[in-house]
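Ticket #4471: structure export looks truncated?
Reporter: QA, pipeline team
Priority: medium

Steps to reproduce: submit the single chain below to the structure queue and open the exported record.
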Amino acid sequence: MSAQRTSFGKLERDRNKKARAAAKRERRQGRASETDAASDDTRSTAGPESGAGDSTEVLELLAAVHERYDEGAISLEELEERKAELLARLEID
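Actual output as written to the record:
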């Protein structure tokens, strides 16, 4: 028996599937770059030099970092790095 040829419809569906996957990947990368830019702004405005020792502010920033991780916008390594930075700024009474 010979192998059955794939139909034009199947080839077209595969092409469309690949195009949708590429568009989705581009959207995710765009969102990730926007999130990185926003987090860089957060770092610059709430750095240790700005006297951001207020524990509620640090905890809010920590919650925001965890939300970005849950959304998949940042990696586990980035989460751990930012978490360490924020916990170092947290004042313990």
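Status: closed, not a bug. The export was complete when the record was re-opened. Leaving a note from the reviewer for reference: Helices lie at 8-45, 55-71, 76-89.
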